[in-house]
Give the backbone structure.
Amino acid sequence: MSPSIRIFKRAFVLVIALVGIILTLPLYPILGLLIKLESKGPVIYRQKRVGLVTRDTIHYFYMLKFRSMYQDAEARGGPQWATDADPRITRMGKFLRKTRLDELPQMFKVLKGEMSIIGPRPERPHFVEKLDQSIPFYFERVIEVKPGITGLAQIHCAYDTSIESVKEKLYYDHAYAARLTSFKEFILTDLSIIFDTIAVMIKGKGAK
């Protein structure tokens, strides 16, 4: 990205994040109560992810989400992708994932500058090392591009369940990064992704 596009993109996502927080903040206590009523544990789930990657540095951050799984879901099996009919996911969690409402707390990470509204999905360090060894150009998808709450891959694909599903998303991540060199393409692409994301949330197609 050119410096001008980078500055405008940051200003653009700040406005979207602030508006998003203002509009959705009334939902927080309602969602929090429903989560607590079904299962014990914190309402907000923190998890370490790989953030912005430069040629010299890998930045890590803790992503925030409304908890969609039972507490200590990985205590026995360790880190693993969710699967269809995953018993670790609560009934409320299934609703949160389908509507993508579990992603709402990430808006605060956008304000902090650790994430963007649109960009490649931030992955866990445990998986990044394995995926980079298995998939050519996997790591390059996040170089100089902040991870996003949503993106081309997120609206076209379901949650990761295997290496094959990650490969499919990789094409979308590289396609999005390629469009950031033109101011016009960046604006049209980001607006299109935002509207498509809203449609996914309304239709409940965030997870299969």
In short: The chain has one domain: 3-202. Residues 3-202 form one domain. The first strand starts at residue 44 and ends at 53. The chain has a mean pLDDT of 86.
